[in-house]
Amino acid sequence: MDIKTIDINKFKRIVFFTGAGMSAESGVPTYRGEGGVWHEYNWREYACQDAWETDPEKVFDFHDLRREEALKCFPHKGHELITTVQEAHSDVVIVTQNIDGMHQRADSKNVVELHGSLWRVRCQNEGLIKDDLNHGPFEKRKCNCGAWLRPDIIWFSDMLNPDTVQQADAAVTQCDLFVSIGTSGVVWPAAGYPQLAKSSGALCVELNPQPSELAWLFDMVYKGKAGELLPQLFKL
Ligand code: NAD
């Protein structure tokens, strides 16, 4: 495929917008696609507030498995390339829909996690958010205050964290280069970001083996895998 290299010095603010496809290439299962988690599990029993209130231990067990699966996988060349772009440019934000922490494991900074993280918990009583970076299952399921520590993840029907949304909105509105990678563009409100970037005047690029629902609004659409396309798009 003929890929037009992007010179990062021509852009003031860069946003990488990533979805499940970015991590799928590392081996993290997707949710909806072929072999996806929701074919095996009913999300109503594992990934919504009702499920949590009915059986928190069952919901914790499910998320322990997600942590285990993520730990078996490693960042790929695409994650590394994004880190290299960050090291070479002063204003690069990653807005991700992924909860697996793969960008941080590739040493990326400025990661805005729209849908939360498998590596954080939130005290149900005090509302405090804490890291749980134990290399395996969650270290603790209950807080010192006695309340449950809820995985800090946006489940079905949850509202996004307003501070996180504010950070993502600001980054996307202000960027002049927006690179969307491995997202189908069907999960809202995240799916609104390509349009926001476009209407804010950014050059919009999509990388995906199957062009997304939103491919029509991108200035450049490259069909392929993130780990192969990113190093060709940015020669650093
Ligand atoms: P999605 O599952 O709806 O779509 C994945 C997209 O990735 C598809 O368009 C597919 O063509 C593309 N893709 C597959 N392999 C790719 C590759 N090697 N390179 C580039 N693209 C590739 O994903 P979504 O749009 O992110 O929405 C799914 C939702 O599920 C999100 O809310 C996300 O939070 C959540 N989720 C997260 C994880 C994770 O943390 N790793 C995994 C599964 C789902």
Shape: globular
- Give the name of the CATH architecture of the largest domain: 3-Layer(aba) Sandwich
Quaternary structure state of the chains depicted: single chain
CATH class category label of the largest domain = Alpha Beta
Regions with little confidence, pLDDT below 50 for 5+ residues: none
Radius of gyration: 18 Å
Helix content: 25-40%
Cofactors, ions and other ligands in the entry? nicotinamide-adenine-dinucleotide
Q: Could you explain the architecture of this structure?
A:
- This protein is of the alpha/beta class.
- The chain has 2 domains: 1-28 and 75-115 and 159-236, TPP-binding domain (Rossmann fold, 3-Layer(aba) Sandwich); 29-72 and 120-153, SIR2/SIRT2 'Small Domain' (2-Layer Sandwich), CATH 3.30.1600.10.
- 33% of the residues lie in helices and 19% in strands.
- It is built from 10 helices and 9 strands.
- It has helices at 20-24, 37-40, 43-46, 49-54, 56-71, 77-88, 102-105, 162-174, 193-199, 226-233; strands at residues 14-18, 92-96, 111-113, 116-123, 129-131, 149-153, 177-181, 203-208, 220-223.
- Strands 3-2-1-7-8-9 form a 6-stranded parallel beta sheet, sandwiched between helices. The protein has a 3-stranded antiparallel beta sheet with strand order 5-4-6, with helices on one face.
- Helix 6 runs parallel beside helix 10 (226-233) and helix 8 (162-174) packs parallel to helix 9 (193-199).
- The chain starts with 13 loop residues before the first strand and ends with a helix.
- It binds nicotinamide-adenine-dinucleotide.
- Nicotinamide-adenine-dinucleotide binds at residues 19-21, 23-25, 28, 30-33, 97-100, 115, 181-184, 186-187, 207-210, 212, 225-226.
